[in-house]
Design brief:
The chain is an alpha/beta fold. The strands form five sheets. Strands 9-10-8-11-12-7-13 form a seven-stranded parallel β-sheet. Helix 2 crosses helix 6, helix 24 packs antiparallel against helix 29 and helix 25 crosses helix 29.
């Protein structure tokens, strides 16, 4: 890197830019360079190229003087776009140069098509980055220390000042964005989606960290570790490095370990894997105030030997420095476990902050009929031959055309939906209950995979839905070897598709690995020394005087404490002829005395310093001590950043195999949260097609963060007339009717804006006695498939739909805060209904319907817990992941019980 830095600055003339330099940039533009180490290597090369900015400034000047040839212009534009897209601590700020060039339309008016395309991308990035940042008295900024005009500067985890603020957070209603120019809507929309989603996160977090309250007092007990003190640093093991973290001793809270010997501790930790759960989320408190949020790492060797110590990792440098300062000034710190699922929010929020390019701007943000009409476009990768075949032959058997395992004939609504998904850049397919929207999604995936060369990203909201859709893809004939599933969960059938199950035949970049490991180890050694010295840090008088010498505010004190005869031949002696020491004046001053033997030599300009009273002098000394401590902490923070950069490059280099495996697959499947976690690998894989299942139940932010500049086609499959996405903060919902509409999906928003969509009309699931209610309430055009018409009657019942009217009232369940029941702080239960359901389940079992054939749905989480308790006496209810999580968090179910599955009967809230 040093050699490259020197070579790039040896000759910064236009001749160099038009020869060796443009060849170097052409190399950087190769896909495999951007894919190496998850993109970290490219960032390092770009940083070396433009920092210091000598070369960059000369390159901008050469462009301004029109000294670059066409290939040189192209390399310059690509370099500008890459740097402009760098949202987190870019090596230099190029926004002004990019804005000037865009205003002059130097790229936009170019004859070269590739250069114009880069110019438009640069323009869109500038618009996205600046939209919503304009300052006004009613806009964001200034409410607290984490309120900024630019949402990319907002720390995802709140500060204490933010949580204590009485002023409401800033976010815009949806119609405020619709009133902007079309070109400004994308940037402002991303800004608002971040603010709304983060506020939804904070709504639950505020309750979690507030301590006992009327809403939180009945939650399950949370672990609190008290009396934290600095024990050292933790950077993983010699073999496996991890991001920097602090090891902290605990005075109270780990008695289950401290009262056991080493062998007993090991046994206890082995038998209790949920104790101090690895990567648990929590906050550090000092005298009731939040110092920082942190992630707990369970390191067994630190818990089993000597005084047990925990390991905490802070989210960023600022949080780390706050924690280090707090540990030095207080012995009353405590760590409180927090139940809020930060893991579900943080990846998406970080992706929103890094999003500067958004495809389909016209399609996604059209609101008027004229804008919508102009936005509907034919996809550049639309398979024309297949589309023509489907359009010209209404009876076309898709088995022959798509090499399916069985004959498939489509009805008119299925044909139109399939054509829409094949033809349009953005297509919306509505699937009412039982109409086979997953089948159409699988058929689309098969067709696009067969007829195009693009990779396909399939995303769903839940693991359950993802596994179901993957099973549909396997059933329709897509080979398992062409698919990969990201994320930890799976079913028996989809387990072979998991990323860690895939064979890796490539090679790792061992040169980068070795260099990064050596660099990380050097930083780790220095950090260990610095953290150890911080534990016993107490500045000497020499340290303080030296600090004053370079102080911007208090340099006068340094002059006042200098011996006026230091450079003369004379010496001052005190009692018994002892020579006055170097810090004689400082010693006199800090003890509240005058200048003693040097009183007559004190200049008038320093008289005010010696006139200070004792309390003022001690206050100054405390300030200087605090500043010295802050300087030492800042030094640790700076070195931690360097270590984490090396460790991140090392980790990305080791995990490059994941990206290489993903590169080889045609279909990449994951949940929306996993898509945010694997964003680097997905960007490198550059899937051209995204298919979204359950699109009506997915928050818009989760879909926006899955899009990338490489996305050519987006297919949304869902139903806006069923469930909306789930959020915690009722004040932000459509139902609250205040216009923020956080739980309005992209699918619903586009349909309400008039974007064309197709609707599947023939349902294959419900008997007519059931579908008639659905038809009367919501779907008047729903048609019953022939297979639903002649099903045998249900044994033991007089009809398929039975309503039961009773007069046994429900009761409040104060132990359960039901976030599903929007706007309510407690849930509800009805013991009579539970007893009735138990009898029905028994009765249906006597008719030959096993518990695996039955499902119980309820509107309330409180009723869910009561049902589970009663039914588990004879059966083992199976709860979906989301319901289980809520019951565990409410203290109504143990983690162990959540994992058991025997003689299952499906119990769920209606939303699942």
């Amino acid at each position: 890197m040093e050699s490259l830095k020197l070579a790039l600055r040896f000759d910064i003339t236009s001749q160099f830019f038009n020869s060796a330099f443009k060849d170097f940039v052409a190399f950087l533009m190769k896909p495999y360079v951007g894919q190496a180490c998850g993109g970290d290597l490219l960032k390092q090369l770009l940083a070396v190229t433009v920092h210091p900015p000598t070369l960059w400034n000369a390159l901008v000047l050469a462009h301004s003087n029109q000294e670059l040839d066409p290939e040189g212009e192209l390399s310059f534009a690509w370099l500008m776009l890459e740097l402009l897209s760098w949202t987190e601590k870019p090596p230099i700020n190029i926004d002004t140069a990019a804005r000037n060039i865009t205003e002059q339309q130097r790229f936009l008016a170019a004859g070269d098509r590739d250069l114009r395309a880069l110019g438009y991308r640069i323009k869109h990035v500038l618009l996205t980055k600046t939209a919503g940042v304009k300052q006004d008295e009613f806009g964001p900024g200034g409410r607290h220390d984490n309120d900024h005009h630019d949402f990319r500067k907002i720390a995802i985890y709140p500060t204490d000042d933010e949580l204590m603020s009485k002023q409401p957070a800033f976010y815009r209603p949806a119609n405020a964005i619709n009133q902007q120019l079309l070109e400004d809507r994308a940037g402002m929309h991303i800004d608002n989606q971040f603010r709304l989603l983060r506020e939804d996160f904070l709504a639950e977090l505020r309750i979690d960290v507030s301590g006992p309250s009327s809403n939180a007092k009945n939650r399950r007990p949370r672990l609190k570790l008290q009396g934290l003190s600095l024990a050292g640093s933790y950077c993983g093991t010699a073999r496996f490095k991890t991001p920097f973290a602090l090891a902290l001793s605990v005075r109270r809270g780990l008695e289950q370990l401290s009262q056991r010997n080493t062998a007993e501790r090991k046994t206890f930790l082995k038998d209790n894997p949920k104790f101090l759960k690895h990567q648990a989320f929590g906050c550090v408190l000092g005298r009731g105030r939040i110092v920082t949020f942190a992630t707990l790492l369970r390191v067994d060797e630190l818990l089993t030997e000597g005084e047990p110590a925990i390991v905490l990792r802070t989210p960023d440098r600022t949080a780390l420095e706050k924690l280090l300062m707090a540990l030095k000034v207080s012995d009353q710190l405590e760590f409180l476990m927090v139940d809020t699922p930060a893991f579900a929010y943080e990846p998406v929020l970080r992706c929103l902050q890094s999003t500067v390019e958004l495809p389909f701007r016209e399609e996604l943000f059209a609101i008027s009929s004229e804008e919508v009409e102009a936005a509907v476009r034919i996809s550049p990768i639309a398979p024309a031959d297949l589309i023509e075949a489907i359009e010209t032959d209404e009876d076309l058997d898709m088995k022959t055309r798509l090499c399916l395992q069985k004959s498939v004939s489509l009805d008119s609504s299925q044909r139109q939906s399939l054509l829409s998904g094949l033809r349009q850049t953005v297509s919306l397919i509505q699937g009412p209950p039982g109409t086979g929207k997953s089948f159409i999604g699988a058929l689309l995936a098969k067709a696009l995979m067969q007829e195009t060369a693009e990779k396909i990203l399939v995303i769903c909201y839940t693991n359950h839905a993802l596994d179901q859709f993957l099973a549909d893809l396997l059933d329709i004939g897509i080979p398992a070897g062409d698919m990969v599933r990201l994320g930890a969960k799976s079913t028996n059938r989809t387990e072979p598709l998991q990323l860690f199950k895939q064979a890796f035949r490539g090679s790792r970049p061992y040169s980068v690995i070795n260099a990064s490991k050596e660099e990380a180890e050097e930083h780790e050694t220095s950090l260990r020394t610095l953290v150890t010295s911080l534990k016993t840090f107490s500045p000497s008088k020499h340290d303080i005087v030296e600090h004053l010498e370079f102080s911007e505010e208090d340099s006068a004190f340094f002059s006042a404490f200098q011996n006026p005869l230091e450079d003369s031949d004379m010496q001052i002696v005190g009692k018994k002829g002892k020579r006055v020491g170097e810090h004689y004046l400082y010693d006199r001053w800090r003890h509240g005395h005058d200048a003693g033997a040097l009183s007559e030599l004190i200049p008038n300009e320093h008289a005010w310093i010696w006139a200070m009273d004792r309390d003022s002098r001690h206050a100054k000394i405390r300030t200087w001590t605090q500043q010295l401590l802050q300087d030492k902490v800042n030094g640790i923070g700076s070195l931690v950043e360097a270590y984490d950069r090396s460790e991140n490059t090392l980790r990305e280099a080791w995990s490059q195999k994941d990206g290489d495996i993903i590169q080889t697959k045609r279909i990449i499947a994951c949940t929306t949260t996993a898509a945010a976690k694997y964003t680097k690998q997905l960007r490198c894989a550059a899937p051209g097609i995204i298919i979204v299942e359950e699109a009506g139940e997915i928050l818009e932010s989760h879909i926006l963060t899955a899009l990338s500049p490489s996305t050519k086609q987006l297919v949304l499959i869902g139903d806006h007339k069923q469930l909306r996405p789930k959020v915690n903060n009722f004040a932000l919902t459509v139902e609250k009717d205040e216009g923020y509409d956080l739980n309005r999906s992209l699918f619903e928003r586009l349909i309400l804006a008039g974007f064309p969509h197709t609707t599947l009309r023939q349902q294959h699931r419900m008997c007519p006695e059931i579908s008639t209610h659905v038809r009367d309430l919501t779907y008047p055009d729903l048609v019953d498939a022939r297979a639903t018409l002649n099903r045998g009657p249900i044994r033991g019942l007089c009809g398929r739909v039975i309503f039961i009217d009773h007069r046994n009232p429900e009761v409040i369940a104060p132990a359960v805060a039901d976030r599903r029941d929007m706007g309510k702080t407690v849930s509800k239960q009805n013991q009579w209904e539970v007893s009735m359901i138990l009898k029905i389940v028994r009765y249906m079992a006597q008719q030959g319907y096993g518990t695996g054939d039955q499902a119980v749905l309820t509107p309330y989480l409180g009723q869910l817990s009561l049902l589970r308790l009663e039914l588990s006496r004879e059966h083992d209810p199976v709860l979906n992941d989301l319901d289980s999580f809520d019951l565990v968090r409410a203290g109504l179910m143990s983690s162990a019980s959540a994992a058991q599955t025997k003689r299952p009967i499906k119990i769920s809230t209606i939303g699942e």
